[in-house]
Amino acid sequence: MRSAVEIAAAVRAGQVSASTLAAQAIAALKADAHVAVTRILEERALAEAAAVDALVARGDDPGPLAGVPYGVKDLFDVEGLPTTAGSAVLAGAAPAQGDAEAVCRLQAAGAVLVATLNMDEFAYGFATINATYGTTRNPHDPARLAGGSSGGSAAVVAAGLVPIALGSDTNGSIRVPASLCGLYGLKCAHGSLPVAGTYPFAESFDDIGPFTANLADMALVWGVLRGEAVPEWTGDVRIARLGGRFHENADPAQLAAIDAIAAHAPLVELPDIARARSAAFLITAFEGGHLHRDTLATRAMDYDPAVRDRLIAGALLPDELYGRALAFRADFLARLEGLIADFDVLVAPATPCSAPLIEDPRIMIDGALSPARADLGIHTQPITFTGLPSLAVPLHRPGALPLGLQLIGKPGGEGALLALAARLENEGLTGVSAPERSIAGELI
């Protein structure tokens, strides 16, 4: 599949029309068998593509993403449609009065929205097992999970159906599916990309970000969403490795890759990391539960049972316990600042393993089998707790199931993440590999 950068250049040069590309993407999405798509936006996509073609015909520049087809996780507002957040509870909600801010920015850059994409209901899970829309399948092995909660977004990019897609990340919902599907996925520094017009989960942690199959596309889309280009990093990147539970719950291939990347780099152990993840769970549960408290009181049986029970538990948490978790977070961040002051990037696994089987969605954590839906985010959730930016990068593993690492930076130092990722790709340690088997056509 051509990259977004290549597609936009071809459209601006008049070598291919945005309308042709939109029609190709729509046809591929209609044939999709990964259970990744919730709605195909054919009428809207063709109208947006025609508008791009009209600008090209007049000699005007339609933008840096001219004619690039993309999809969004089903919690982004799309004007005229209910924002379902992957739930039957919201299927009959009033239509959105406008697009999410991120969608507006991509449209202004010339991109063409073609679909909304599957997710865990209300983004509460790491697997994209959805009671209403089904379980999204991994393009590298359809018998395995794509990860979640932005699994539909990862699957359509990994399958080559569109070059870019947007997801959201509250505790790892971009980085987990990026790792399992072998893509680049960004969880930005908290609050640095626009969340306006997205259905919330936990305000303390909610962020949005892109999935891409290459770094040039990531830099381009990231810049469009930011409203300015990502600052270019100059000089060396000071690296540290994360140890402790990040080392204990990891695939040997991840540990070997980290050694190859940073064999002589210092090892940093974050303080109280298990407690940090527990506090992140608690804050997420409390904020998510209270958001749904009134609806649960009247329509509890309309929720996915696995999601409903977790939301009810969160709604019952006392304010005092939530306050203690927030106080711990403030103390944790104060201690963290000193620990990482001398480094630009921390390297850690993104997931503890490759994609588990759909028929047995369990993974090994601390020597025991644990539900993948809850624990695939064991390494991403503590990083979300810090608010730091994190870029999931795929290990170069052609012919094997994908695995990813996290490159974790500082607010304002996102350029270091891209710089290091580019170096690792040039060295052959990381990079996207296309699925060996395909159950749908890809965008030409």
TrEMBL record:
It comes from the Bacteria. This is Aspartyl-tRNA(Asn)/glutamyl-tRNA(Gln) amidotransferase subunit A. Its EC number is 6.3.5.6, 6.3.5.7. Pfam families: Amidase. It is an enzyme of class 6 (ligase). Keywords: Ligase, Transferase. The keyword Ligase applies. One of its GO terms (molecular function) is glutaminyl-tRNA synthase (glutamine-hydrolyzing) activity. Residues 28-227, 270-418 form the Amidase domain. InterPro entries: Amidase, Amidase_dom, AS_sf, Carboxybiuret_hydro_AtzE.
